[in-house]
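__Protein archive entry__

___
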Amino acid sequence: SSGELAEIQPGLAFVDAFANSAAVATDDGLVVVDTSGVFHARSVHETIRRWSAAPLHTAVFTHGHIDHVFGVELYEEEARTNGWAPPRVVAHEAIAARFDRYRLTAGYNAVINQRQFKAPGLRWPVEYRLPDETYRDTLTLEVGGEPFVLAHDRGETDDSTWVWCPQRRTLFTGDLFIWASPNCGNPQKVQRYARDWAAAFLKMAALAPEELRS
């Protein structure tokens, strides 16, 4: 991951980080899909702020892994300082149970992730930003006149969300697309949902132009 930002199209930016973050500039403020991780959120926030100073309107968490759900507090502090409306966080309804489990198993998660990522100083977080709004199957948000369609499928996690922006013909996959697919888990961690993951790929691929599917 480079930490660099690329403007994919006018008003749409992508930050390449350990957990990527994408920002859409609407007339009502930013929509950010994943605010990055516990270790990278501040640098990702600074990178986005060099691109846009607009308030954060909505953050979407694609799932509850700790490399995706931190950094909202940085936007919230800006909102308090500038007198803006506080940002809204939206996620799948299963994310709250994941955060509860993470609090209960913080010591265990610290040990296995120290080993897996060769990070002896890693401390597992116990404070999480709960969503303000959740959904079960699908949810369409409208921000600044732009629709954002959220859809739930199980893949790397049971609380996965992918986001489709029909006006921009842009898909935000979260970890439903990674560079090792499917990542079916490992002996120290919960196994993932390979069959459901494949079904999610087919749904997402159906949104692509015909020439990309042939």
User: Anything to note?
Assistant: The mean pLDDT is 94.
